[in-house]
Each structure stands twice: as structure tokens, then as C-alpha cells.
Write a structure and sequence with these properties.
By secondary structure, the protein is an alpha/beta fold. It is built from 16 helices and 23 strands. Helix 4 crosses helix 5.
Length: 488
């Protein structure tokens, strides 16, 4: 992979005239912006100091989902007896599954290879880039003049100043996927998506896992019931959940690390061979000359942009994790498309118009789009809730995967305002509700969409049926009964 993403001996082009667009950062947002602009005929430069593909490809969603797949296979094998299939002696070959992860990552990496982007007509500059003026960026001594620029430098794992942190070895997503041996024990600090996914996966591999979360529940941005379902699943897999536990300090404990936490009952300590920090992301804004470019930013929140993704320098835009609260690959993709419309063609596209779903790939998965029930209440939105439990879904019953539900937030007329899906493949199902939110579709319309039987996705249609039944008031029912009686 590394040979394609940052080839040794790569010769940067010699700048020749002004660029329509200079893109700083070769993650998802940067790659989409560069390829899209070049495809439209723009003169484009792409600058990346490390590996093209960014965090998602190298140390994020791609390698993590490969591990999750292996973890699911191990879990399925151990639980196959409930399906009448006897599997004996299930074991995990950690080096082999890590090799598989790297192979699959390499397969996907070809889409972000430096030679490929060169063939697309993009001038690829590998090296550390920084702004040296309001319309100039420097990389490896070369001065790139631009009409427009995009900051797409992404984010990295946040590492807070916890006492003792400098005295112990800590894993983040940037080092986790370089492991060669399965940890004997692991403390995961942070119960968000990354922490929850990796805690469950490593428990399924056979690691003794403790997850420490400062809040009252894991997955604080998701529906509370969704978090409960996932927490119960994780505990069945052997994850020791410590909620309302704030890390006070780290200490060396021989060959292990001691994590000291403050809880409601007092101070407690947990020892493990490895510790994974998964407590958020920090934008990559340092050392890129934002001050010289006249670009306002906050070290914690990232580059400041308006709704059209323009920075305080009207000729410089920003997209992706460095400038958005939605730190997802698919969000970076569509934010970059918004930048292209506005930067190259005097567009008026707004980031706020994007309907951005998200998914957490635990087992079961949790996917969401639009308003949550809590947010609807907080904003005073007049709304109703339709909920379908997967215990009432035939396919989920047949698959023995009934831990989950479909919850839809709607207005009085049935227009879909948001939805949460908790199911084995919720990430594959949320697209239907995303389409509904984006286009103002009603539950009545969803009820008329024929789904194959049996499928878990049919729960969405059934939610529409349930809404239609709420419209059958006693008065209407009486009228219908009279009509049918007359027609007998």
C-alpha cells in the first residue's frame, strides 16, 4: 500500500502557472475535491505530506471494518450451535487476521494511489505543505499560486493531558492496527463509536476487555435504547463496562498499565497489558500556515467556515474532519462536492442542506439519520414516534438476530423527520430512511413500497402501515363499518 500512496522517489511536478484549485490534504475530502475539479477541466494541485487516502484508509474505517468482520466470524462460529451447526475448537489467529486486514486495505488503496491521480490530470505534490500567503502555498520549496484552495487536512486522535500519560504506552487508532500480537488484556477509554467497535471486536478475539466511559452510557449521540441494546450485546461478548468513570491518571504496573478512574463509589483501578484511547478527534490545523493565509481557526474545533464552507479568506474553503462536526468519510465526500460547486462555479450550495446519516458497526449495528426523539423534544418540534421491534420481524427471528428495532420520528402528516435502526446490518438499511428525510417522504408513502419477504428492511414498510392505522379514528372506523355493512 505504502508504495502507491507515497511512492519512494516520487518526483513532484514543477509549478507552471496559477492553479484553479490547490488542495491541502489527501484524505477523502481532498481526493474528492481534486479528482472532481480535474474532471471538470480545472488545473489542480493536490498536496499530501504522508499517505494518500488519509485516516479512513490507513488507520480508520477501512482497517477497523476488516477487524470487525473477523470478529463477527469468530462470534458466529462460537454461537453456531443455536442454529443446529456444531463448531468445535474455535480459535483466532490474530497475525493472520491482521494480514488479511492489510491485504484488503491494500486492495482498496489503489483508488487513492498517487499514479492514479496523476493520470487523472492532478499535479500530485508529496511533502509537507503550508500557506505562505493568502493565495500561495509552499511544498518542498515549490510555490503554488492559486485562485482557490481547499483545506482538507482532516483530524487525528485526541490525546488529553491526563497525568501519567507520558510514562506509559498508549494505543490510538493510529497505532492500533500495527499490532502483531493479540493483547492479553485491553482497557478502552471512551465509549463512542470507535471505542465500542474495538472493545467488542477484541473481546471476540479473546482479549480481556474493559471499556471506561465517563458518561452514564456508551454511544452518547445515539438513541438511548440503541445504546442499551449494544451495551447488552457487548457484555455478552465479555466486555466489562465501567460507566460514569473518569480517568484520573495512568501508572506503570510492571509490564502492565494501571488505569485509575474516579467513580461514584470512589477511586478504582484497572490493570491491562494495553490501553486504547478513543475519546474524540482533534483537527489538524497546526503547522499549515493558516495565520499567514488569513484563515480563522480554533485548535479544538478546527477551521471556521460559513454554510458554504468558505473560510475567513474568501478564496480558501475547507471540508472534511478539519472543519465539520460530522467526522465521517461519507460526510467528507459530500462536503467536498459542496466546495467544488461554490469554489469553481460561483455556486450557493449549503452544507446545512446535506442530510448526513451515520452508522456504528457494533453487533448489532446502529444507524441514524435526521432528528432523534430527544432532539425533537429539545427543539420543541411537534412529532410522533413509530417503533417496530425486531422480535416481530420474521427475518430477524429466522436469523436469530432479534436484538434491535426501527424507530421513526415523524410530524403530524407522517413526514419522516428522522430514524434510528438497530439491526445486524443497520448501515445497509438506513439509506431508505435517509432518502425519506432528504425528500420529505411520508410514512404513508413508505407503507406502499413493496419489500421482498422475508427481510429485516420490511420493518420500515411496517412502520408505515402502523402510522396509517393511527389515522383510522373511531369516527372513520364507524363510517367504514357502515359502508361495508351496506355492501353485504
Amino acid at each position: 500500500m505504502y508504495k502507491r500512496q507515497h511512492p519512494s522517489g516520487w518526483q513532484n511536478p514543477t509549478p507552471d502557472g496559477r492553479y484553479n484549485l490547490v488542495v491541502l490534504g489527501g484524505g477523502t475530502a481532498g481526493l474528492v475535491a481534486a479528482a472532481g475539479a480535474a474532471g471538470l477541466g480545472a488545473k489542480v494541485a493536490l498536496v499530501e505530506k504522508h499517505l494518500l487516502g488519509g485516516d479512513c484508509l490507513v488507520t480508520g474505517c477501512v482497517p477497523s471494518k476488516a477487524l470487525i468482520r473477523s470478529a463477527r466470524a469468530a462470534s458466529e462460529a462460537r454461537r453456531a450451535g443455536r442454529l443446529g451447526v456444531n463448531v468445535e475448537g474455535v480459535s483466532v489467529d490474530f497475525p493472520a487476521l491482521m494480514d488479511r486486514m492489510r491485504e484488503r486495505r491494500s486492495d482498496i488503496a489503489r483508488h487513492a494511489a498517487a499514479p492514479r491521480f496523476k493520470d487523472l490530470g492532478v499535479d500530485v505534490y508529496l511533502g509537507e505543505g503550508r500557506f505562505v500567503g493568502e493565495s500561495t502555498l509552499e511544498v518542498q520549496g515549490a510555490q503554488l499560486s492559486f485562485a482557490r484552495a481547499v483545506i482538507a487536512t482532516g483530524a487525528k486522535a485526541a490525546v488529553p493531558p491526563i497525568p501519567g500519560l507520558d510514562e506509559v504506552e498508549i494505543l490510538t487508532n493510529q497505532s492500533l492496527f500495527s499490532l502483531t500480537e493479540l493483547p492479553e488484556s485491553l482497557v478502552v477509554v471512551g465509549g463512542g463509536p470507535i471505542g465500542s467497535e474495538m472493545a467488542q471486536s477484541f473481546a471476540r478475539f479473546g482479549t480481556k476487555v474493559t471499556l471506561v466511559e465517563g458518561g452514564p452510557r456508551i454511544m452518547g449521540n445515539d438513541d438511548p435504547r440503541a445504546a442499551e441494546v449494544v451495551a447488552a450485546s457487548m457484555q455478552r461478548d465479555g466486555v466489562d463496562l465501567r460507566l460514569n468513570a473518569m480517568v484520573a491518571r495512568f501508572e506503570k504496573a510492571g509490564s502492565k498499565t494501571r488505569v485509575v478512574v474516579n467513580t461514584q463509589e470512589g477511586e478504582a483501578s484497572i490493570e491491562a497489558t494495553h490501553v486504547l484511547l478513543a475519546i474524540g478527534r482533534a483537527p489538524n490545523v497546526k503547522g499549515i500556515g493558516l495565520g499567514d493565509a488569513g484563515v480563522d481557526f480554533d485548535p479544538r474545533k478546527g477551521v471556521s467556515v460559513d454554510d458554504r464552507l468558505r473560510t475567513s479568506n474568501k478564496n480558501i474553503f475547507a471540508a472534511g474532519d478539519v472543519a465539520s462536526k460530522y467526522q465521517f468519510t461519507h460526510a467528507a465526500d459530500f462536503l467536498a462536492r459542496t466546495v467544488l460547486r461554490n469554489a469553481l462555479f460561483f455556486g450557493r450550495a449549503k452544507a446545512s442542506d446535506l442530510v448526513i446519516p451515520w452508522a456504528t458497526y457494533t453487533d448489532p449495528e446502529v444507524a441514524h439519520v435526521g432528528l432523534t426523539e430527544a432532539l425533537a423534544k429539545e427543539q420543541g418540534v411537534d412529532h410522533g414516534i413509530i417503533e417496530i421491534d425486531l422480535k416481530d420481524n420474521d427475518r430477524a427471528v429466522l436469523e436469530d438476530e432479534t436484538d434491535g428495532f426501527v424507530k421513526i420520528v415523524h410530524d403530524k402528516k407522517g413526514k419522516v423527520l428522522g430514524g434510528t435502526v438497530v439491526a445486524a446490518h443497520a448501515g445497509e438499511m438506513i439509506g431508505e430512511l435517509t432518502t425519506a428525510v432528504q425528500h420529505g417522504t411520508t410514512l404513508g408513502t413508505l407503507s406502499s413500497v413493496i419489500h421482498p419477504y422475508p427481510t429485516v428492511a420490511d420493518a420500515i414498510r411496517r412502520a408505515g402501515d402502523m402510522f396509517n392505522r393511527t389515522k383510522l379514528t373511531p369516527g372513520k372506523a364507524k363510517i367504514l363499518s357502515s359502508i361495508l355493512k351496506f355492501r353485504r
